């Protein structure tokens, strides 16, 4: 069953309420963190801000849509797992940045309907930027429509990527791809927040993004925003994107094919090939 624009707008407004509440809470912890813990893997941090933000989001969802399923980074699976609705929540995307008082970071809330992301809100409370989209309703930044860039050639592009927490455990750690694309473009940024990366491609600040080792909560909201802003999302090889793959190639569409070709040519750097 497909949803009417009015139904999607209701979910978009719920996600917005949750993201704004949570963003205000996150911002209240800025420069004011007394406990930063590691969650198992070295460098994978969680703070009081992550936990308080998630609590606020769950409260809003429980009030409006108690019958829906939830996948939240800090709490795991909650609610009805048989529901066609699944909210994928990253209460603080960019925790390492936040812990070091380095923006950007964001609250990311996506809604999958029958496994397909259809509503997304990303709120960056530091810069007060609210990115929103729902399938067929367009994408906005602070309520104004946004669109991807027109950059066609890699040599004129500014890209962004990231490195997962397992980077010391696998040769597939994206270091070689980073070097290869840094050489061919005007630059490759590493912002530290996957959801913000997708939003920046959506509004044309960046031309493309790729990364591996991601979770559904990193991507669910941002992919809706990028698709609605005219962008393209696939696997690295151009085949259909699957959220559970944790791997994404997301661009303005115009340089998608070239970036895909370059990513496929990369071999791991010798220094890390057997790590
Ligand atoms: C991380 C950020 C980062 C990406 C990592 C993610 P977190 O999320 O999105 O940009 O490179 O792979 O895990 O831990 O700050 O929520
Ligand atoms: Ca994240
Ligand atoms: Ca997080």
TrEMBL record:
Residues annotated to bind Mg(2+) 1: 73, 92, 218
Cofactors (names): Mg(2+)
Annotated GO biological process: inositol metabolic process; phosphatidylinositol phosphate biosynthetic process; signal transduction
Keyword hit for GTP-binding: no
Domain of life: Bacteria
Keywords from the UniProt entry: Hydrolase, Magnesium, Metal-binding
GO molecular function, one term: inositol monophosphate 1-phosphatase activity
Broad class of enzyme this protein falls into: hydrolase
Gene3D superfamilies recorded: 3.40.190.80, Fructose-1,6-Bisphosphatase, subunit A, domain 1
This enzyme's EC code(s): 3.1.3.25
Catalytic activity: a myo-inositol phosphate + H2O = myo-inositol + phosphate
Chain segments annotated as transmembrane: none
Entry binding sites for Mg(2+) 2: 90, 93
PANTHER family according to UniProt: INOSITOL MONOPHOSPHATASE, INOSITOL-1-MONOPHOSPHATASE-RELATED
Recorded family membership: Belongs to the inositol monophosphatase superfamily.
Name of the molecule in the record: Inositol-1-monophosphatase
Upper lineage: Bacteria, Bacillati, Cyanobacteriota, Cyanophyceae, Oscillatoriophycideae
